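Private note to self, pasted from the team thread so I don't lose it. Backbone tokens:
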């Protein structure tokens, strides 16, 4: 079958890929929107994979908010040096800050509220946690250099809860999920690094600027996630191929707190 290929450099906030289904949502954070199925390639997924556990919302925030967030994150990380590596060895060439919620102002506060509203209404509606009882960890901002790496890992299960989500800014990326081995799932390390050789099963998420990805359920606990290197190709369900030439990338990470 013939496939079209689109090369995405991914350095402009205004970059958009039009989905074939659905319409653009209202920008008010009161709105709850649907994920874009064209941004998830589950063609190599295990038979027991739950598609609702790994989703991407395209154009989740506006261009104006995206530009403003980049300005805020650049200002807050300007005096920091890029770290060569984290103590758990899963990320390199990065800056990371915790965003103190007591001092948040718009547009950052607006986007935090918008994301949490979406997560609460869309991803906790059927859980045992009542929306009013959800406890959130402070969001984190990450600045990943062009040559930076985010290796396969499972986020800590000691302190964070059922969900990991992220807003992508500046550069597109491809996030790959791979099944975690049983012995790795029992690890008590705060962040479990996973080294899969020649994976036979995986799920890819295409993360354009301004999008929101959400990992929950099996994708949160039983799959590792990583960012693929620059030049990797995303195979969309509509047979479009998107080659992502990654550049500097900002992200804002959201997690709920672990239940007592």
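Design output:
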């Amino acid at each position: 079958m013939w496939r079209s290929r689109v090369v995405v450099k991914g350095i402009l906030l205004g970059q958009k890929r039009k989905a074939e289904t659905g319409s653009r949502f209202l920008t008010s954070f009161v709105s709850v929107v649907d994920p874009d199925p064209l941004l998830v390639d589950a063609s190599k997924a295990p038979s027991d994979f739950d598609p609702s556990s790994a989703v991407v919302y395209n154009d989740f925030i506006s261009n104006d908010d995206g530009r403003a967030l980049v300005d805020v994150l650049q200002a807050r990380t300007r005096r920091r040096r890029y770290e060569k590596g984290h103590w758990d060895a899963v990320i390199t060439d990065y800056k990371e800050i915790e965003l103190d919620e007591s001092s948040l102002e718009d547009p950052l506060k607006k986007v935090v509220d918008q994301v949490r509203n979406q997560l609460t209404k869309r991803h906790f509606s059927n859980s045992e946690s009542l929306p009013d009882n959800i406890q959130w960890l402070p969001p984190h901002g990450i600045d990943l250099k062009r040559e930076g790496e985010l290796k396969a890992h499972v986020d800590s299960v000691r302190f964070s809860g059922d969900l990991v989500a992220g807003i992508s800014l500046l550069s597109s990326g491809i996030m790959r999920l791979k099944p975690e081995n049983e012995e790795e799932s029992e690890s008590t390390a705060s962040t479990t690094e996973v080294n899969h050789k020649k994976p036979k099963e995986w799920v890819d998420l295409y993360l354009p600027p301004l999008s929101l990805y959400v990992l929950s359920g099996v994708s949160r606990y039983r799959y590792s996630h990583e960012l693929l290197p620059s030049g990797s190709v995303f195979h969309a369900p509509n047979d479009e191929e998107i080659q992502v030439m990654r550049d500097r990338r900002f992200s804002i990470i959201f997690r709920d707190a672990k239940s007592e």
